[in-house]
Amino acid sequence: MTEPICKVADIIYVRFELTEFEEQKKYFDHFGLMLAYEDENSIFFRGSGTAPYAYVATKGKENKYIGTAYKANEYSDLEALSKEFNVDIIENTEPGGGHKVTVIDPDGIEVEVCHGMTPAEPVAVVSKVLNTGQSKQRENELQRFGKAADEWQVEGDKWVYKLKSNVKRLGHTAINCRDAKASVDWYSRVLGFLVSDDVLGPDGNSIGAFMRCDQGDKPVDHHTLNNIQLPGDNYPGPYGHSGYEVTDSVDDLMAGHYHMKTIDEYYHEWGVGRHLLGSQMYDYWRDTHGFTHEHWTDGDLLDASIPENKASFRDVVMAQYGPTPPITFGVTLPVDQIDKVRAEQPTLPDLIKEMEIAAKKEA
Ligand SMILES: [Fe+2]
């Protein structure tokens, strides 16, 4: 393979345009992101880690996903991108500073590559010690989360669980592409991404990939990007979801699940379960603008020596365990259309079941 233009180190943030901010601020307060900075035209949210922000939205006429930002290893990576795409290196005037280059991927997604951002002060979080059947590490210490059972409060006529997830960082985005091969090739060539899983459709052709950063012998997240070409002729738009890693482990994720569930204000998309590709425990929630955001924990870490794996759409949809996803999963829709679409169309597992039955008949 020819050398890529650069090899990015990690993802930093996602960028959106929104028509309003108050609903989004409310959603992220429940979801477990912290407001890092705001002014009249922009809102920035961060996790407990060192990224100055993990989500930024600017005020505009539409609710739309603009793109994703990645961290460059060296300033020379910005120079290489600038030369290749004939774009300027600009000073980043947003929180964190540094410099960046913005290029456009084959689906029109803005890809920002940043260097020299000043890290934020991480928020201290005490990790819980878990006892398992095989390993007992916690003795004479009771396992308590937040205010324990007092986290349950009666609000109006319902019980609400008050403890929320603590997001640490943005870990990946999932995007819908018009041409899977073009997208996978572009991210390999331009940002140096490696394919962790090549996802094959029923006809054996690739319908996308789970891609990770190439940091040599340093293990990185199994996927920083998931690009999928959904079946059908109607391109649903580029945004699938953003995956945010929670700070502690499964209890941090489950607290957020019960908080989001009991406040009963947002659409639940999928979870809680354990993915096959990447192995994370996951839980997906949709905001009021129709964009889906994931809490995840306990993902696989791979270094560059691990070869590409061949996977199927079944491996994406049918998790190791957990509920199956609705047909709306992975597609950005106005929330007033969700119930109708879910009622009228078969579920994703039903579609896969039909494909498998058809394949058996053919065999
Ligand atoms: Fe995800």
Structural summary, described in words:
- The chain is of the alpha+beta class.
- It has one domain: 2,3-Dihydroxybiphenyl 1,2-Dioxygenase, domain 1.
- The protein is 20% helix and 33% strand.
- It contains 7 helices and 21 strands.
- The strands form 4 sheets. A 9-stranded mixed beta sheet has the order 17-18-19-16-11-15-13-12-21. Strands 2-3-4-1-5-8-7-6 form an 8-stranded mixed beta sheet, with helices on one face.
- A hairpin with a 5-residue loop joins strand 18 and strand 19.
- The longest helix is centred in the last third of the chain and has 15 residues.
- The mean pLDDT is 96.
- Bound molecules: fe (ii) ion (FE2).
- Fe (ii) ion (FE2) binds next to strand 11 and strand 16.
Please give a quick description of this structure:
By secondary structure, this protein is an alpha+beta fold. Helices cover 20% and strands 33% of the residues.
CATH fold-level label:
2,3-Dihydroxybiphenyl 1,2-Dioxygenase, domain 1
CATH class categorisation: Alpha Beta
By DSSP (H or I, 4+ residues per run), the number of helices equals 7
Helix percentage: 10-25%
Provide the spatial order of strands within the biggest beta sheet.
17-18-19-16-11-15-13-12-21
| Number of structural domains | 1
Give the class from helix and strand content and strand pairing: alpha+beta
Distance between the termini: 36 Å
| Global morphology | globular
Number of strands: 21
Give unreliable regions as ranges.
none
CATH architecture title = Roll
